[in-house]
Model the fold of this input.
Amino acid sequence: MKKSLIVANWKMNLSIKQGYIYIKKLYPSLLRKAHAGTVVICPDFVTLPGLSHFLDSKKKNIYLGAQDCFYESKGTYTGEVSPQSLKELGCTHVILGHSERRITLHESSDVISKKINAALKANLIPIVCVGEQKILSQKKAEEFLEKQLIASLTNITYTPKQSLVIAYEPVWAIGTGTSCDPITLKKKSAFLKGVIEKKFGIPFAKKCTFLYGGSVNSKTAPSFIREGGVNGLLVGTASLDVAEFLAIIDVTT
Done:
C-alpha cells in the first residue's frame, strides 16, 4: 500500500516569525510519532529559507514544498522564483495550478503545463491541482476535469523515476466548510487515475499519488483516505493550527 501524503498549504498566512514558531512546535511532535506517511509543509516564499535552515540540522521526518514556481530557470522575470532555487532551498514538492492561481491570477493551463515541466527538470515533485468551480453532475464534472488535467499536462517530459501528485480540489469546497463526500470522491479519484493511465500509461499512473483538498479537518480526514480512493490530503486552513494538523496526520497515517 502506498504511503499517505499529507500536504499543508499555508497560502498567504503566517508571518516569517509565526512560521518558525510553528515548525519548532510541529517538528518534535512529528519526530515522536511513528507515522508511516510523508508530511510536506508549503509556506510562502519568504518563509521557506527559515524553515529550511531549521530542518537542515534535523533528522528528516518532514519535507518542504513551495506554493508555486516559474517556468524558466533564470532570466529577466522580475518577481518570479526559479524551481532550481527552490530545490537549493531543500524543497521536494511544489504546488502548481491551484484554483486560486487559476482564478484570481488568471493562470492558464498552458502556463501551468510549462511550470510542471520546469519543476520536473529541477527534480521537484509537482502537486498538480484540478477541480470544478461549482457542483456539477458526475458526467459534466468528469468532462471538466479531463479537459483541465489534460491541458495542464500537455507536452510533459519526465524520466522513469519521476512521478506526479494530482490533487483534486473542487473550488466549491475550498474554505466553505462543505467537503466532497467520500463516495463521490472515490468516483472522481478513480476517473482522474483513468485519465493519467490513458495519457501516460498504467506504470506511470501507479507511481502517481492522488490527494483530496477542500475543507479538510481531523474529523473528515479519515473517511477521505479510507473511502475516497485517495492517497493523501492537501490541507489548507486546518494546517495553520499545529494541534489540528497533527490530529489530521494521526488519523490518516
In short: The CA atoms of residues 216 and 235 lie 6 Å apart. The first helix runs from residue 16 to 32.
